[in-house]
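Sequence only, no structure available. Ideas?
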Amino acid sequence: MLYQQIIAFVLLILFINLLLNLRSLNKARGNNKPPEPAPLISVLIPARNEEANIGACLDSLRKQDYPYFEILVLDDSSTDGTAEVVARLASEDQRVKLLKGQPLPPGWAGKPFACHQLAQEARGSWLLFTDADTLHAPSVLRSVLGVALESDAALISGFPYQRTTSIWQKMAIPILFYFMLLSWMPFWWMQRSRRTLPSVAIGQFLFFSAREYRAIGGHEAVKSRILEDVWLGMEMARHHYKQVTLDLSKLVSCQMYTGFGPMWDGITRWLYMISSVSTLAFLVIMATVLLLFLAPFLWLIYGLLLAQPALAWQVLVILQVAIVFLSRFFAGRRFSQSKTSIILHPVGVVFLLLVGFYATYQHLRGGGVKWKGRVYEAESHVN
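Reply:
I predicted one. Tokens follow.
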């Protein structure tokens, strides 16, 4: 009984934290007018084998209602038709420019080096790093610049809408991107604290003041990091630059994966790098996820099918399951996620735990992880 009471209490605290986050998470207003004169915004896109995505991404960015921007795309040694697609669009629109990536030097991870090269060529006083598989509403540049100027923020990031098509994506992506972050991270407090604290920095959308970005050393400061977006956010906080987290779901959307294999590799990459920082801490995190977000469902099945526990025990377990489903419902409603994702929550947690154990195994055996045709070792060395 004491165990069930503790679990129910912790879940209730996390549920309250999620609700506070959802209440405080602002959206960029679409009625912001650009200042006069409008500062140049450089939109920077690293692209490696993105032939299927880059055209739609660039089309959405070319439709921006902001008056003064450039779009730089770096072809990072693609083996498909990425460069040809960008070159064709660049011939139609002088705001679009194709850059050829240099060979990856020792000590650099792939995406940080691609972004570093883009930043060196950027002329804007504001820099938007975004991914080739994103789509952008016409007002996104005007809206986020307005927020940055009003809030005096040096970095704006947040939660894009995650497009999911397969059943595996529906199970895993909303848990990682919305449910876990909004349950655990006290964004409502972090952004109101007088101290400069790191906030969520998601690489699908990183909007920097160029001056502050370069003051922290840019991507060179995180050159060996696979999760470079997270570390950039930490660097900004370490230098006492303000960060703002937004609900970007009406302005930016992203579909990171098109198949099971790339999704497995992508999630493995994230969890592998967390495990490489501290395997013990990562195992504790996975155990906590199991106890809080999966065990209540297992206890419910046990109570219904295999035992006849006391009524108070049953009530506590049902309360735990209800809190988890309510948390998923509120997060899913805010970010327009599939009801299938909510219903299959226990299966999604099992899947993520399996990926986590696999990532830990790969780290302990020194196997590295694959991403975009490169193999990264624990210290972010590239083979």
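The chain has a mean pLDDT of 91.
Hope that gets you unstuck.
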